[in-house]
From TrEMBL:
This is NIPSNAP family protein. Coiled coil: none annotated. Residues 7-99 form the NIPSNAP domain. InterPro entries: Dimeric_a/b-barrel, NIPSNAP. It comes from the Bacteria. It comes from Pseudomonas reinekei. SUPFAM superfamilies: Dimeric alpha+beta barrel.
C-alpha cells in the first residue's frame, strides 16, 4: 500500500476554483483503483496551502494510474481546468507507507 500526499500552494483568491478541481479528482482516483482521502483546504493559519491524500495498493498501481490518466478525457479536462483557472501556483508530491500496530 502506498499513500500519495500532495501539498499545494494556491492563489488564495481562487480557493473556490481549487475546491472544484479537487471535487473533479476524487472520483477519478477511484475510477483508476485508488482510494481518495480528500482535499483539505485552508481554515486557520496560512491561507494559501492545501493538501490531498490518496492511496493505491502499490507504487506500480499508482504509476499505472499516472500513465493512464494522461490519456483519459476526464483527467485531461481536470488538468485543463487547473491550468485555465491558475488556482494552483505549485505543488509537491511525496509517498508514504502506513505502519499499523500489532493485530491479533
Amino acid at each position: 500500500m502506498i499513500t500519495c500526499y500532495l501539498k499545494y500552494v494556491l492563489d488564495p483568491y481562487k480557493l473556490e476554483a481549487f475546491e472544484h478541481y479537487g471535487k473533479l479528482w476524487i472520483p477519478l482516483v477511484a475510477k483508476f483503483g485508488g482510494q481518495h482521502h480528500g482535499y483539505f483546504l485552508p481554515s486557520e493559519g496560512a491561507n494559501n496551502i492545501a493538501m490531498a491524500m490518496f492511496t493505491f495498493p502499490s507504487l506500480a498501481a499508482y504509476e499505472h494510474y499516472r500513465q493512464t490518466s494522461m490519456n483519459d478525457p476526464e483527467c485531461i479536462a481536470a488538468f485543463k481546468y487547473a491550468e485555465e483557472t491558475r488556482c494552483i501556483l505549485s505543488y509537491e508530491r511525496s509517498f508514504f507507507r502506513p505502519v499499523f500496530g500489532n493485530q491479533a
